[in-house]
Amino acid sequence: MSRKGRIVAVALVGAALVSWAGIGRVSGQVGTKVREKVGEAAQDVKIGAKRAAEGVRERLARAKQSVHNMGVEARVYGRLHWDKDLHTTKFDFEGTEDGVITLKGTVPTAKAKAKAELLTSETFGVTKVINHLAVAEPVTTGATPAAKP
């Protein structure tokens, strides 16, 4: 190889080494930035997963409470609907999350009102009964009994 060829070859090898060393530094900087971005993305995913888990826990708790409420209301309905003194009476009730049942409507007698409250209060899961039942007034025909002589 001629002297000129060796100089060119050495220059090319030197240029290659310099450029390779520069690429190493650039790729090192790029690698650091990529690691930082990946770390940030991982943190964002963890935060998002934590929030999602909290949301799922809240919704599950609400669903459990709704199922519990439906169970309490179903038990109250069964007790009132199947009682022989109350099954023909038209009244309504509502339940809250903590087992409070509110009775509403009209019943034919004070005895029916007291029985509805008693049956409701004795139902499993009921913590309190609010009795807004009204007693229907007896229907009068307007006729007065005939006077006895």
Written account of the structure:
- Helix content is 61%, strand content 14%.
- Strands 1-2-3 form a 3-stranded mixed β-sheet, covered by helices on one side.
- The model has no long low-confidence stretch (mean pLDDT 79).
- The protein contains 2 helices and 3 strands; from the N terminus they run αββαβ.
- With 149 residues, the protein is of the alpha+beta class.
- It starts with a helix and ends in a 14-residue tail after the last strand.
A few lines on this structure:
The protein has 149 residues and is an alpha+beta fold.
Features:
61% helix, rod-shaped, 3-stranded mixed beta sheet, 149 residues, 3 strands, alpha+beta
Provide the low-confidence segments as ranges: none
Task: Estimate the helix proportion, in percent.
Answer: 55-70%
**Strand arrangement in the largest pleated sheet:** 1-2-3
Largest sheet data = 3 strands, mixed
Question: Helix/strand-derived class?
Answer: alpha+beta
Q: What is the 3D shape?
A: rod-shaped
Mean pLDDT: 79
Count the helices. How many?
2
Question: Rg from C-alpha positions?
Answer: 41 Å
N-to-C terminal Cα separation, in Å? 156 Å
Number of strands: 3
Q: Encode the helix/strand succession as letters.
A: HEEHE
**β-sheet strand percentage:** 5-15%
Give the arrangement of secondary structure elements.
Layout: H1 3-81, E1 91-95, E2 100-107, H2 110-121, E3 128-135
